[in-house]
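WARN no homologs supplied; continuing
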Amino acid sequence: MKSLPKAVFFDRDGTLNVDTGYVHDSENLIWMPGALEIVSDLTAAGWLVFVVTNQSGVARGYYTEEEVVKLHEWMNKRFAENGGHVTEFFYCPHLPEAKIAKYNITCECRKPGPQMILKAFEYYNIHKNRAFLFGDGKRDIEAAERAGIPGFLFHGGNIREFVHNNLPRTKD
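OK structure emitted
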């Protein structure tokens, strides 16, 4: 019998890349130290890697969903060049006080809501006992808790070292 997949969820801005404010193109993305390497390490070890990110810049009219998708595709190419792979990027473009009407909703996908994580559980047959989240904000940790998984609060530095020092060992 095949074992269920192991999964790591990352917040994006402030965890995989430096949060310089509404990052939406590759020219403005600065990798967090160790980001490319940790995705490679996890991929090589058989983990599914996901990104769950609030992108309120879409709702505010700063950039489009297409720009978010294009940036995520670019990021995954950089991960692949280093031997890594993000299985899927989940993002929430909503904001209750949004400038753009179609994004002006209260939803459960916007962290601290757990919906992005729960979608991955459903689509990829992930059990919460085999999943973890790393993020730089309280809303990331709350989303993890609401999804029933451990969350680790990253305060900056080298994300690869942080993950290796905090990721529980799992049996296969």
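The mean pLDDT is 95.
OK
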